Structure formats: structure tokens, C-alpha cells
Amino acid sequence: MAEELIPADSDEAAAAAGAEEEEQPIKQRKNGLYPGVSDELAENMTSGWADTELRDLEPIAQAAHTADRRAALSARFPGERLVIPSGNLKTRSNDTEYAFRASTEYAYLTGDQSEDGVLVLEPQGGGHRATVYLLPRSDRENGEFWLSGQGELWVGRRHSLAEAEQLLGIPAKDVRELPEKLREATGPVRVVRGHDAAIEAALTDKVTAERDEELRVNLSEARAVKDAFEIGELQKACDSTARGFEDVVKVLDKAEATSERYIEGTFFLRARVEGNDVGYGSICAAGPHATTLHWVRNDGPVRSGDLLLLDAGVETHTLYTADVTRTLPINGRYSALQRTIYDAVYDAQEAGIAAVRPGAKYRDFHDAAQRVLTERLVEWGLVEGPVERVLELGLQRRWTLHGTGHMLGMDVHDCAAARTEAYVDGTLEPGMCLTVEPGLYFQADDLTVPEEYRGIGVRIEDDILVTEDGNRNLSASLPRRADEVEAWMAALKQG
Ligand code: GLY
Ligand code: MN
Ligand code: MN
Q: What are φ and ψ of residue 263, in 5° steps?
């Protein structure tokens, strides 16, 4: 990649962006590190460009839904200015940045995914007027287009503000005007923190941490029940994820010849081709790595006879993610002990899924799954019963390790800022989506279990939508029962 003629954070870039010194010829604003720019070249670069404005654009698919979501937010905070930033690029090294992913709150309320965007809801009448503040098209007159790091010549064409208005169904303005407007604004204001330091700085005298946290919590709880568009996207995420798991099974021999990285790369290819990204770092845990809950280094060997715990999810272009785990025998057949442990986890998951229905307490599916796992652990003689005593003391947790699931949506651990009473102490409602993911993990150095158990980890995870009369497994297209997994793997390897 070539370097920018003028680094984005230099004074010259600000001048090139037209912030000041606009009358200064470009050739005098050269950075010492870079060759000069002649007036002739500068003149040349300002002209000869076609009008590419897009007209009569259709709104994006989620525009009607985002309007409803903004209306619900407006009703919860009457008379207050609400500021929801998308976030900024984060530097990886020098002038390279991490891939940008818009904040969940901003994308949920606008459907937009631009960096540096900000949604502002200003009180008006009994409700609010929404404006989305965005970086406009690059100015071709003042050099911004080709000399600034944010210039479209470097980063690609942006939508014009007029285009954005049509696509999002929200009036759009230049985000560079926003800090000054916010500094001058009067009346109560709240901002979603953690995404845009410059916007927060402009509001520093006007906001409090407690009130801002209320906004974040509110937006987290608002996302618990998914609308029809969101459910469709979650289904797409699960379908793409299922295809990604099939891709992995087909290349297990190549993974055996290399490492867990082959599995990570294979799944990532599916995620990038069909979606935006993976929704979280893929856990490609072969052999004893399966007992490490968030194994994302993925640099270990893949060996015949071991299990592969693959926990991965495609994130759609609209930022909804799946979160699915299958624990697969690398050679296609579970050993007797692997299967015994697998079946216990499967039975626990079945019990957990059966407990997901409207009106059930959120904790019910966890309790149901934990009970099954505990019964097996007692049956195998790994912990002394009775089962009630083990559950009361939580002794099974040495091997079950984690909660049995979580809300799922735009974030893999969705609605994470919700209050306890609205989430783990709450009640399931139609439209909620959650994972059911029991597991058993016997660490390689666990001296309390027979040697043959050590280094075995099993988790099975599916994405379950609460429906009016029960639930629907969105990831059901991937087999779960041991014999079905084996048959599915055999068919894929043959194909
Ligand atoms: N993939 C992380 C989780 O299952 O929660
Ligand atoms: Mn997972
Ligand atoms: Mn999960």
C-alpha cells in the first residue's frame, strides 16, 4: 500500500480538508517527507471528474424498523437530546487501522455502518427529530479528495448526504459541524459513551456518567425482543454458519497437515464471502484446547482420534451474528468415552432447549441443563452425590464451567448492559433469541478425574428463538446427535 501524501493527523491534512489556510497553494503545504505538489498538478486534480451522484435510491430494508426503534427510544427519554455515535477507526499501527465495525447502538437505530457517524435525537414537540451526522463526499476543490487520509481517493466513495437521507430515511448533515453544535446546545443531553472521544469531549460539561449509563442500559434492554427483520437476519447468520461448518469438515485433512489455523481461515472465508465478518473470534479448539473456553489462538495441532470443538458464527452484512458450537470427532467417529461425554452434553442441551418458551424464567434452561450434567457426573463417580447436594454446593461447576447461554443478536453476548431484573432474573418473551450451550470440560491436568477423561472438552451450542408457543432452533440444520454428526461428516467427506 502506498503512503498518503499528507498524513491524516498533520496540520497539512487539516488545511487540505479546508479547515484553515484554504488560500495557501497546495505545493507550499507539502510534508518534508513527501515530494511537493505543483500548482499545475493541484489544478489538474480539481477538475475532470464526472458527477456520480445517485438519485432515486430505495430505502434500505431495515429503514422502517429503525424508525420504530427510534420512536421507542424517543418515548423513553422525552425532552432530552440523545447522541449515539458510530465510532471511529482505531489505529493498528502507524497509518493502518483495524477493520471498522459500527457501534451496535448506532447501527440498530440507523441501519448505517459508516465510521464517524453520529445519530442525534433532538427534542421536538412531544417527541424527537432525528438527524444523522456523517462525513460527506470528499471536496475535490481543496485537495481533501486526494491528499487527506479520509479522502475518497484513499478510502473509497462515501454516500453523499442526500444519498444517505434516501437510504436511511433520516435527514443527514455534515458531522464536522456537530461538535460545535453540541457545545452550543442547551437542555438535558445523554450520549452513548465509549465510541467517539471527540463527541464526548464536546459534551463533557453537559453529561453525567450515571445518566449516560441509563441510556446504554435502555438501548441494551430494547434489543432483547427482536423484530421480524432481525429474526430473518439471525436465520441468515445461522444458515451461513452452517455452510461454514460444512466447509471445515471438508478440509479436516488439510487442517491435520497444518494446524487449527486452517479451520479458522476456512470458516473466515465463508464469513467474509457471505457476511460482514465473524461475529467473534472463532474458537477452533482441537484435542485438549477444547477445555479452554475461549481458545482463539488456534495455533495447535489437529489430530486424528481427538475432538474438534468449533465455536464460530457468521455476522451478516447487517451485523447480526450466529453463535454455534459443534464438537466433532476429527477422524469421523467418536470413541466410546468421547461419545459418553458427548451424549451427556447432548441430553443436557435437549433439556435446556425444552425449557425455552414464553413465560419461562430466563434461568430455567440453565437449571435444566445443569441438572442433567450433574446427574451424569454423579453416575460416573466423578463427584459424590446426591445430585441435590452437588447442585446446592455448585460442585459440578469444576467441569461445567460457564452459564448455559446468553442473549444473541447484533452482539454475540447481546443486551449485555441490561439490568439483572430485565435479563437473568427476567422472563422469556416471544422474539427473544438465546444460545443454549452446555458443556463438559476435563482439563488435561485435572487429577480428580480418571486419566482417560483428561483433555476432553465438549460443548454443543444452538441459537434458539422464543416463539409464541415454544421455540425454534435457528441452527437446527447442523446435526447435533452423535450418530447424525458422524453420518453428516461421512457424507461431506465423500462429497
Ligand atoms: N462464542 C462465545 C460463546 O459461546 O459465548
Ligand atoms: Mn459460542
Ligand atoms: Mn455462546
A: -70, -45
Output the pLDDT for position 453: 98
Q: CB neighbours (10 Å) of residue 104?
A: 21
How far does residue 326's CA lie from ligand 1's centre (Å)? Answer: 12
Determine whether the shortest distance from the Cβ of 461 to ligand 1 is under 6 A. Answer: yes
Q: What is the mean pLDDT of the chain?
A: 93
Could you read off the pLDDT of 84-138 as tens digits, one per residue? 999 999 999 998 999 999 999 999 999 999 999 999 999 999 999 999 999 999 9
Radius of gyration of the chain (CA): 26
Domain boundaries, the chain: 63-222, 228-494
463 touches ligand 1 (CB under 6 Å): no
Spacing, Cα 460 to ligand 3 middle (Å): 10
CATH code, residues 63-222: 3.40.350.10
State which CATH number among 3.10.580.10, 3.90.230.10, 3.40.309.10, 3.10.490.10 fits the domain covering 228-494: 3.90.230.10
Q: How far is the CA of 311 from the centre of ligand 1 (A)?
A: 7
Instruction: Indicate whether 14 pLDDT > 60.
Output: no
Q: Does ligand 1 lie within 6 Å of residue 323's CB atom?
A: yes
Q: Which residues pair with 189 in a beta bridge?
A: 81
Measured by CA distance, the residue closest to atom 4 of ligand 1 is 323
pLDDT in tens, 232-279: 999 999 999 999 999 999 999 999 999 999 999 999 999 999 999 999
The residue with cell 468449533 is 310
Q: Which atom of ligand 1 is nearest to the CA of 461?
A: 4
Chain centre to alpha carbon of residue 135: 24
pLDDT tens across 228-238, in order?
999 999 999 99
Could you tell me the pLDDT band of residue 35, with boundaries at 50, 70 and 90? Answer: low
Cα 380 to Cα 366: distance, rounded to the nearest angstrom: 21
- Which ligand 1 atom is nearest residue 406's CA? 5
* Residue 233 near ligand 1, beta carbon < 6 Å: no
Give the ligand 1 atom nearest the CA of 402.
5
Nearest atom, ligand 1, residue 459 CA: 4
How far apart CA 309 and CA 288 sit, in angstroms, is 10
Give the ligand whose atoms come closest to the C-alpha of residue 434: 3
- Residue 474: name the closest of 444, 446, 430, 433 by CA: 433
Residue from 136, 131, 132 nearest 158 by CA = 136
Residues flanking ion ligand 2, Cβ below 5 Å: 311, 323, 461
Q: Which residue has the cell 482441537?
A: 286
- Distance (Å) from CA 307 to ligand 3 centroid: 19
| Residue of 267, 327, 412 best suited for mutating to test ligand 1, as the one with most atoms within 8 Å of CB | 412
Could you tell me the pLDDT band of residue 81, with boundaries at 50, 70 and 90? very high
Digit-coded pLDDT (tens) for 324-373: 999 999 999 999 999 999 999 999 999 999 999 999 999 999 999 999 99
